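User: Can you predict the 3D structure for this chain?
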Amino acid sequence: MPTFKIDGKEVPYEDGDTILMAAYRAGVDIPYYCWHPGLAVAANCRMCLVEILPPPGRPAMMLDVLELDKDKGDYEVVKKPKLQPACQMTVTPNMEVLSDTSPHVIRARHAVQEFLLLNHPVDCPICDQAGECKLQDYWLEHMRTPKRMRDEVIHKPKGVSFGPTIVYDAERCIVCTRCVRFCRDVVKDPVLSKRERGNLAEITVSPGRQLDHAYTLMTEHVCPVGALTSKDFRFKARVWFLRSAKTVCQGCATGCNAWLDFDPRYQKVYRHRPRDNKDVNQYWMCDEGMLSYGAVHKDRIALARVDGKKSTVERAIHVVGGSLKEAPKNKVAVVLSAQHSNEDNFALVSLAKQLGFDGLYVTGKASGEGDALLRHADKNPNTAGVALVAGSTPKSFEELVAAIESGAVTHAIALGSSVPMDAEPTASVLDRLTFLAVVGVWKGPLEKAAHALIPACSWAESDGTFVNAKGMAQHSAKAIQPVEDARPAWETLLRILDAAGETAPFKTFKDLQSAMPAPAEKAPEKAQEPAQADEASAGN
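Assistant: Here is the predicted structure, written as structure tokens:
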């Protein structure tokens, strides 16, 4: 791969790369506001200005500028090289670029930063972006001086509701137009635009419209400052208290890579953000996926139950193990879950094989609306993973209902609680079962009909592997501790197997993963934004 130099460092580049794109990919920090790797170039913030050295034998392009000579008390004409926006300049062979080592670039970045802050309200103590705001970061890196302007700042609209999910503060806005370009170029819904010019410019919604497409929270996420804020996260938490885990979105079969932000002091999840992976979701997530974090704390199964009464987990496991051991093998249904990880499902498949049950079924959420960008019609994160660990596609939940109605199935053990059918008809059919054991996370028709119920960990409370619609296996990391009696479903299923008088074929998570069928493809993780969070801290 060819290279060029930034401050004397060799940086690889691909044909057509701009200086900033190549630097971003290589982890070389060049400051920017308006640029985004997934959006068209605007080059309007000028924060990424760099000095490009001329080829040998060719003079540099110089500009005449007025500069105050403090000794003489007068302005003099001096020359400086013409600086170029790194986001717009294409890399050429043998190019040499000066960034942090050029005094002209350092001075220009200071000036740009001061210019952007002239009319800014500097209301960081009440701003949701505080702690992950590029204005704050770059003030520390490139300015570190107070504003010199003493005039009254330009006042603009504040707290403007752009739609059901987003609030806009025009005084904080630096008019980078990221939000405009995202709606126009990525979502293909040009609902936002810029009006006025100069220090009167602001972002506005098209007349008669709201910002209400399926990617409104992503529109807020691309904002580098606190101009756009999410109603869901607004005034909920300070980002410096949050930690982040690398997870996989549970909203659909696309399997978007995500950061799950949580407060370790309270073991509470506060938001989902996209994690870059060009092979899966690029830089984006939809609203449904970004809000899916709420399920971690909502409608949870927290305590074990036997015959409708509170029970200990140990007793529930003993009851389930004994009932399955005595059940007629040809009338037992083993219900896998497209909402659970490969590990959880493989543990249940292993239990079925050792106990001699061959009736494999699968359940999960019903299909929904999809689109050409990210949203998949399959609203389950692991449909492909279930087929992988089962060895073939299990029978559908509708077929299970029919088998129960015909009397072919009298006993069942189910993973999860979501079903793709209406709750009331499903409940009436499930009530016909002689025995139903459920190891689940959320309340639902299966949970209500269960004779023995054992709580399980959500994806946020345990490690797991999910296979998306493209067949890519992706790891989702544990973020918070399990709620009350919940334990990883795979662990509980192995204990049920022991209670049924069988010896589990594996004891640890690593042993289980080693025994699982290998996925056809593992999704590679791409480089993250240099300023983005890792597992230790939340970022922009």
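Confidence is low (pLDDT under 50) at residues 527-540. Residues 237 and 270 are 8 Å apart (CA to CA).
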